[in-house]
Model the fold of this input.
Amino acid sequence: MQHKSVAVPLSVVAALAALGCKARVPAITSDFADDFERVEPGPDWLDTSGGAYRITGGKLNVTRAYNHPLWLRRKLPRDVVIEFDAMSKSPAGDIKVELFGDGESFDPDKGRYDPTSYVIVLGGWNNSNSVIGRLGEHDESVKAARPRDPGQPPPVELGRSYHFTITRQGGILDWKLDGAPFLGLTDPSPLSGPGHEFFAFNDWEADVHFDNLRIRPAN
Done:
């Protein structure tokens, strides 16, 4: 009996290949560190912007990425501690990262961005508000917020380096800034598993620098 060959669409082939590649991405089981002491992000990172992320002076620099994240090609532990330093050289502030996302999503058209992750923003919306969002950063997606009080300085001081410590244990997400409690979130349905395993740096238009990334399982 002769069997006929079946043509498989290239889009299906590409999707299966992408799934296979993601399945082979290593998990973080001990301390992971990146000090960006090199000339380009390299194979540990997926740049969905096509080149907005650069390394300058030993720091990761991004501007005008328009919600095209730089995804780390390492799977996060379910309970995790993520630390890094960040500085904005724009009056807009707008320091942004994602965690527990799908490792590949981005905004295709500068429209409403629907991330697959928690989104943490310091000094967003023209340096007026800081938030933790779940599967978004607007409206009902914002689960914790710290708006700028009238008469107070903006959340992000131009050129100042901030140390972020973000911890997730179970359904509790804790964000410390320079060692002090800043925002927190208790999520009864914490994001985890396939589609929610990756960390990313992100940006809209601000000129932001990141350095000294450390990721480890939470005790």
Summary: The longest helix spans residues 10-23. Residues 87 and 161 are 5 Å apart (CA to CA).
